[in-house]
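okkk here we go again. third time trying to get the zinc ion bound version out, last two times i messed up the smiles copy paste (missing a bracket lol). double checked this time i swear
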Amino acid sequence: MNRESRLEFIRSLPLADIHRHFDGSIRPRTLWELSEKYYSAVPGLDFEQFRHYLQWDEEQDSTLLDYLDKFHVPLQYTQFYDNIRRISYELAEDAYKDGVRLLELRMNPLIHRRAGLTTRQVIAATRKGLGNFAAEHPDFQVGIIVIAMRNHGGNMARLLLREVIGEKEEYHDGIGVIGFDIAGHEAPFPPVLFTDAYALADAMGLKKTAHAGESEGPERIWEALDNLGPHRIGHGTSAGRDPELIKRLAADGVYVEVCLSSNLQTGAVAKLSEHPLPKFLEAGVKVALCTDNPTVSSTSLAREYALAMETFGFSEDDIRQLAKMSCAGTFLADGCRCAYGE
Ligand SMILES: [Zn+2]
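finally!!
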């Protein structure tokens, strides 16, 4: 089986991506067009050079800082309602074409407020774009996870939660906020700072995930489990070094959202063959295979599944099981409606 036939098989399955960031999934072409519209294109820079500021380049990039650097350029265009709406629509379309039938898109609304939008307007624009696409494709399910940036601290996280309560999915025909997450620099902002925010998210009826153990060790994942009570952990890569933690994740039924290319690029794993994904599965940990940032990582969900087959020798049946498990990890109130649902 070559790459192309693998991708064809994978895209024939209903896929779910429950860890994908808005800012890291924008079409480079769209940003290029917007840069011309806003007269902000750098004179003399062509599209290929522009892409370098948005996408991982194996030749030139090697660190987490290189990775995070790719999120700067899009920010000047994601401050406007129409742009957020358009980007959200295109993002759903790209996912759908890749075989994704259930998408959970995550974003921190605060970083898109610099031109005066309110938190609710940012989410409303996202809902509008996603909702327009979903209305045209009844077999597509979508929801939004709100991220609090770790470096904004616990108080800001609680304020943010209060602002988004009116954007929950139940108030907006099923497309709205379904979950809460923390992301950003792990080391100086441990999970315990967000204990109250997670309690509030819980009281608001939101499901909970948390980025943890991506650049920090397993102790941060323990801390997240003990203090935040998450249903899922984003990345959780360092759990691979802690057999007791793997047992805990399995016993508690906590999902790990695994993003292979991203983990390799940010250095969470040195080599893909060393990724703990097979270890998690063998130990009975629930896993959802996800993209993190398709644009930044130059990948797609189908390509991540192909990578899993190529790296770990997963069979077609293994892939079917993994796709099914990923769907079942959804925060959507209705659960997954795809073919695995029955
Ligand atoms: Zn992430």
